[in-house]
Structure formats: structure tokens, C-alpha cells
TrEMBL record, chains A, B:
Keyword match GTP-binding: no
Molecular-function GO term, any one: NAD(P)H dehydrogenase (quinone) activity
Record's protein name: NAD(P)/FAD-dependent oxidoreductase
Protein source organism: Tumidithrix elongata BACA0141
GO BP terms: aerobic electron transport chain
Biological classification of the source: Bacteria, Bacillati, Cyanobacteriota, Cyanophyceae, Pseudanabaenales
Domain of life: Bacteria
Length: 454, 454
């Protein structure tokens, strides 16, 4: 059955006449790649459909601030329909894509409906990778979705709440031990924000525990944290984290997680740490659409399941199927694939939109060239590291750059002013307004209190 | 086992010497009653413990704005620890009270720990009442907690999303039909906000459906909505709702909810309406602590399980156990019990704190006298009704009063300015920033799409 949306709508009739419906581009995924592609495509005289499982775009770089109670999910999320509301040639569908048929040029939804496309852009991103230890997923949750962040927030804040009531010093110590696995930007930002929470925000709010005694451990397999940054910035970040009280352990590989005990190998030594809160920031793997594309087109996947793309983001042999953002392995520039960061996805999305424009309008095809805008990570309340190639900035000045850029890119968001106000308020009062333990809170509390087995 | 928090803390030693620990008051519940009691008690030279299952106080009167995507949960919630952080004689415990022992003057937590009290204030409020049809709870969720609001938001927004993809006009109609059961303030405010959502906020965001065709039905058993208000205000509210497109049915009793069909009796007629979204705002019953108190003290409960209290809020025969707020049936003033609204709870909380002060300091006991500050309900975007006894206000002026008072009482909250900004933004742009479908979204979507049975 073909999906016949817009059939009975009078609005749709207006669309039919006002845009060239000969070319229909379907974009799957409303992250940075998909949204930036859709926004560019919406300017063209073609029909555009954006499909996402969720009804909102998420500003993932700030998700750690939801996990640590500074921002609310809605502060960093924007309804896709609201962002694209004035694009009259664009339809937004909240749906799951179950399969594609590249020969018939169709996308098949989980609800069995089918949609025909002329061009297809797949931008479904990545999820957590536990490197074959999928049983760790519940024990050491990761941070990719709003639900992940709410779950982390519940665990982090819940640990302090349960510690407040715990008379046994050993058990209290385990409750006040937090292990972050993975020293990339997410792990570094999470550890820094947790240190700030324990040392400042929560400091005067408990009577039975001293929250500044909380131990925050950051474990990284490489010989330094932020391994994708220049060594001097890694060193600066480690120094800042240590000053905040975070214990940084590099060359450290986690070998087991069980019964709230993390076992890790640090050189030749095997060590254990008992921690009620263990957070995963160690690796990513491609979303399921990667395998679907491989099955249907024979395209090569890399070792984490990302799709190898041509120099124009298309799949070999399928010039009208593009993969962009974190799901794409783009190795046509420099000596390694482009990193899985927002600027890459945004530039790829805009590039593919321009490529489709050139085809629709019969113009010469553009060439993709990634402009490296640098990379940056924030550490705690007022430190950051910024890598702009020759210019490397650390400390409070880097933090100001980070703040400016993040608010600038939140320009998509209604909430820009509100986020700035929240930050200002949190910064000057050291309070955090979004510290709610919600969702399956009873379950997590009982597990931490030992009433229920984990 | 006695709970020995504070034993090893150096902070606790400071407390021991600086406050008179002879009198320990335990407050159970951090709603309006419990929080206002705790804040007053914190000024006295006694020890205070506030116990709540949640780590935050919730400004429940605005919960419907979370359910309809205007505000975030954190905008109307404040961590209890943050509110009481500078009260050094006050301990906050996130815990569930399982039982009380009035003879031994102990509170027993779910985790088996026991706490001794000299005075006990119970303020655990009420939950939904389905009048013996508890199977309706999942089909027609109510609105008391943050999770309830997120659940409602998911259903309301999800219905529009699924309708956008639905080719069958009959099924689409059921998806765009919303039934609110109960015409008290919550039902009225919810129906008004939903009408605003359908007629304005979502209007230009869909291409396959016309959201203004959504049917919103408000069912009330009495002969008028807002039955606790003067008839002229009920009439004004009904007129405003009708102008917004809400279909108001009074003298209407729901007799069944099954397979997304609501059956109701309206006079002699029995009617049915198919609706994928059914919301419950019809009744409340006492929380479980009511029965616990009855079992342990023999106190009388009313027909919805509320605790009958003496003129000083104490339980007959137990002058040191008080029940306040929605859980209390206080019938010592006027011809019926005081209503279950925030001002009653706040005044009772402050009164009991003053009563305990008089006992600790050996002063004459105060007498409770409820000051009726009036009642008010908002209808849609810029209308309200306000009842101040002789002065009755409707329309936009009432809405301004409502806005002013709600922001005034949010003074407890860090978020006051942010809520004002959100409102201002939403008011002038008719957007709503917090329209996220989160939590068990796949489950609800599949149920609405008919992929999974409900």
C-alpha cells in the first residue's frame, strides 16, 4: 500500500501546484545532518519528506547538562515541525523506517506503508557500543537520547539521596563513587559537570553526607584523555579535571562490570572499584540503517558498522542514495575518516542538498570539502579546551568561546535565550534548576538501596 | 533499627550544639502543605525532618501546561533540598513512609529504618479516583505527577503525529478526538490548553491533516462545569471554552471506557465517542497514608479516604499527629470541608508550625481560621475566571490576575523568570517550546497506530 497522505487535505492541493513534485527527496533522521539537509532542500522547488522516530531535533552536545541537572530536555530540543513549519514543500513524519528498496526506490516504514523517493538521504547516526559486552548496557548506561539523559540524572542524583540515608560507611562510599568510562569529549564533560555538582551545587544541601567526598573516576584506554585532540590540550584538560577532584586514569581498559564493581586493567595491574553509578561514554556503533543499506545495496561497512561512502556521500552504484553524519565513513580527505561531530554532519547535509539542487537544475555538481572548524570540550564550570589547528586555547577564555559557539548554534532553538539565562543563573548561584529524579525513580532507588537486586 | 544518619558527619556535630534537639518534628510530604510547614518549622529551635518520595516540590496548578507542551517539568519543580538548603536544623530525606507507630512515636520507612518524632505532620495528598473502575487508569490517565504530565503530553502530541500518517478518515477522526473527563479546574484548563494547541500552535505544522478539525470534548457530571464556583463564572467559563471550539457536555456521566470508546449517559441518552486520547480529571482519593493513620489511630476517614481532623488539624486522641492539605477533611468552618486547593494546604501547614511553636515555647495555642483567597481557573491563552466572593472577574482581566498570582507563588522557584519568559514567548509567538514526545513513546505510538493492542 502506498502512503496517501495529503490526499484529502485542501492544503496539499495548494502544494501540488506551487512546487515541482517531480523530484521527491526523503531524509531519514532529524539530527544535525538530516535537519541541515532538509532545511537546504526546503528552499528548492522539490518535494521533501523528513522522517524521524522522534518529533524533535536534539542538540546532543549539551545532553550531558541534562544528565547533570543543569538544563531541561526541552531546552536543548526543538520540535522538527516547528523548525520546518514555514517550509511548505516539506512534510515531517514521525515514523520508523523498517527497510528500503533501492531498485524500486522506496522506503518502507515499520507500519508497512511505502514511500517512493527520487533521492534518499540516510542520517540515522550512531548508538552506544559495548564492544561485545551488551550485558553492560543496563549497568553502565550511555548518553545519546533524552531518555538516556533522564536515566543518568536519576542515577547520579539518586546515589546522593540514598547515601544521605545510608548508615554503613562502606555502602555509602560505593554510593558516592561515580565511574565514567571513556575519556572522549562526552566523558570529559560529564566528569567535569559531576565534579561541579558534588563540590558546589549539592554541597550545602545534605546533612548526613559530605558531597565533596564523592569520588569521580574517569577511565580512558588511550594514553591520554581527548585522544583526538593535540596532546597539549589533553594535558590541559586532565589538569583541569584533576583540579576539580576527578581521578583520571589513562591506559585503562575495563574488563568487567558486575554487581556494581568495575574491574579494569591499568598496565599490568588489575584493579576493582565498587561504584553504584557507572556511566558509559566509551564507544559508538552505527544505527541499524547501516546494516539495512549493506543488505540492500552491498555497500561496505566499517568495523563499527558505518557506511563507506563515495566522495559525494553517495553509496557506490547508487548515486541517489546518500549517507551523511555519524553513520557515514567518509575517508576522502586527510588520512582518516571524518570525525563523528555535528559540524561534519551539518556540512555534509548542506552539501548533499546542493548536489541534489545541481541535478534538479542541471548545473555542474559541487565538490565536498570539509572545513575543519576546530573542536572543543568544556571542563566543569568555567574551563574548556579549544583546538583550532594552530591556535589552541585552554582555561576560561576557551570556556567563553565554547559558550558563545554553543549559544550561536542553538540559534535553531526558540530556547536560546532561556538556555543563556539558565546558564547565567547556574553560573552565578551554582544552583541547578533541573535536578529532578523522574521516570522509573522507585526502581532505581530500590536497586541502589539494595531493597531490590539490580 | 534506628536510623543513625548524621552520626559520622562533622556537620551534624555542629547541629547538635546549635539547635535544641529535644523536639523533633517529622513532616511527611513535600507538597504545598508539607513544604510550607517545614519552612515555618525551620525557623524554630527544633529539629525538622522532611520526608518525600520525590526529591522535588511540584507546583501542581501548572502541571497541565507540562501536559500540553508549554512548560518543562523543571520549570514548575524545585528540588526540596535547594528550597531548604539554608535551614541548618532541617534534614530532607527522599524516602517512602511504610507505616507509623503512634504509641512509640515512630515513623517506619519502606527501607525498614525507623525515625522517632515528637510531632508528626502528614501531608501526602491525594491521587486519582476512578470510582471503582481502576481498569480505566491506563486508558484514561490522570494528572498528578510529572510522569503523568509526560504521559499525557506523549498521548496528546502522539495522536496528531499518527493522524498525519493515517490514510483512513475514520481512524484519523478517532485520532483527532480528545475526551477530557471531569469539568473541574484541571479539566477546564486542560481542555482550553488543548484547544489552543490544536487551533494555533500546531496549525501550520502539519500537511496531511488540519489540526483545527480536532474535536475536544469536556464531560462533566454536574449541571455545569466548575461546580465549586458561582454559577455565573461556570457560565462564563463554558462560553469561553465553546468559543475555543471545546464541546462541553454537562449532566454527563461516563459509564464505560473500552477499546478507545467512551460511553456516557447524558440525561436519558446513552452515547459513544471513539477517541484515541482520553484524559481523566474527574476525581481524587486519599493517598495510602490515610488508611495507615486510620489503622493505627482509629481516626475516621471520609468516603474518599481523607482523614477527619480536629479544629487544630490534629487526629482525635493524638494531639501530636497532624494531617494537612488535600489528605485532611477539615469541616470546622462553613458548611462543607475545605477544598483541596493549594492555599488551604499552605495555610494549614503554616498554622501547624505555629501551633508546634506555641507548645515548644509554652505560649497560648493559636486558632486556625481559613482565609479564602478566592479561586481561579484559566481558559486557553488569554481568558480566565476569578472568584473573590463578591468580586467575580472573567475574560482577559481575570487572565492577567491568574498570571500575576501564579508567578507570585512561583516565587519559591528559581525558575520564576524563566517561566515568565516561556509564557511571554508562547503567548506572542503561539509556539510552545516543550512539545517533546519522550519516555515510552514507541509503545504509545504503536498502540495508537494499531500495530500493538492497547
Amino acid at each position: 500500500m502506498m502512503l496517501t497522505i495529503q490526499k484529502e487535505s485542501t492544503k496539499a492541493t495548494i502544494h501540488e501546484t506551487s512546487v515541482d513534485r517531480k523530484h521527491h527527496t526523503i531524509v531519514v533522521g532529524g539530527g544535525f545532518g538530516g535537519l541541515y539537509a532538509a532545511k537546504e532542500l526546503a528552499k528548492l522547488p522539490i518535494k521533501v519528506t523528513l522522517i524521524d522516530k522522534r518529533n524533535f531535533h536534539l542538540f546532543q552536545p549539551l545532553l550531558y547538562q541534562v544528565a547533570t541537572g543543569t538544563l531541561s530536555p526541552a531546552d536543548i530540543a526543538s520540535p522538527l515541525r516547528a523548525v520546518l513549519a514555514n517550509k511548505k514543500n516539506t512534510t515531517v513524519l514521525m515514523a520508523e523506517v523498517a527497510d528500503i528498496d533501492p531498485q524500486a526506490q522506496k522506503v518502507i516504514l515499520a507500519s508497512k506503508e511505502e514511500l517512493s523517493y527520487d533521492s534518499l538521504i540516510v542520517a540515522t547516526g550512531v548508538s552506544h557500543h559495548y564492544f561485545g559486552n551488551e550485558q553492560w548496557a543496563d549497568l553502565a548506561p550511555g548518553l545519546k537520547t533524552v531518555e538516556d539523559a533522564i536515566n543518568m540524572r536519576r542515577r547520579i542524583l539518586g546515589a546522593f539521596e540514598v547515601a544521605e540515608k545510608e548508615p554503613d560507611p562502606e555502602k555509602r562510599k560505593a554510593l558516592l563513587t561515580f565511574v565514567v568510562i571513556g575519556g572522549g569529549p562526552t566523558g570529559v564533560e560529564l566528569a567535569g559537570a559531576m565534579a561541579d555538582l558534588a563540590n558546589h551545587t549539592l554541597k550545602d544541601e545534605f546533612t548526613g553526607i559530605d558531597t565533596t567526598e564523592a569520588k569521580i573516576l574517569l577511565l580512558e584506554g588511550f594514553d591520554r584523555i581527548l585522544p583526538s585532540y593535540p596532546p597539549e590540550l589533553s594535558a590541559a584538560a586532565e589538569k583541569s579535571l584533576t583540579a576539580l577532584g576527578v581521578e583520571v586514569k589513562t591506559r585503562t581498559l575495563v574488563t568487567n562490570i558486575e554487581n556494581h564493581v568495575v574491574t579494569y586493567r591499568c598496565g599490568d595491574r588489575v584493579e576493582h572499584v565498587e561504584a553504584k553509578t557507572i556511566l558509559w561514554a566509551a564507544g559508538v556503533k552505527a544505527s541499524a540503517m547501516g546494516k539495512t543499506l549493506a543488505d540492500r545495496t552491498g555497500v561496505t561497512l566499517d568495523r563499527v558498522g558505518r557506511v563507506t561512502v563515495e566522495a559525494d556521500m553517495a553509496i557506490a552504484g547508487y548515486p541517489n542514495i546518500f549517507v551523511i553524519g555519524d553513520l557515514a565513513n567518509y575517508a576522502h580527505q586527510g588520512d582518516k575518516p571524518l570525525p563523528g561531530v555535528a559540524p561534519v554532519a551539518m556540512q555534509q547535509g548542506e552539501f548533499v542538498a546542493r548536489l541534489i539542487e545541481s541535478r534538479v537544475k542541471g548545473k555542474p555538481a559541487p565538490k565536498f570539502r570539509y572545513r575543519d572548524l576546530g573542536s572543543l570540550a568544556v571542563i566543569g564550570r568555567n574551563k574548556a579546551v579549544v583546538n583550532w589547528g594552530f591556535i589552541r586555547v585552554t582555561g576560561i577564555f576557551a570556556w567563553l568561546i565554547w559558550t558563545f559557539l554553543h549559544v550561536l548554534y542553538l540559534v535553531e532553538f526558540d530556547n536560546q535565550l532561556i538556555v543563556l539565562l539558565q546558564w547565567g543563573y547556574n553560573y552565578f548561584t551554582r544552583k541547578s534548576g533541573a535536578r529532578l529524579i523522574t521516570g522509573q525513580y522507585l526502581q532505581v532507588m530500590e536497586e541502589m538501596e539494595g531493597i531490590k537486586p539490580s
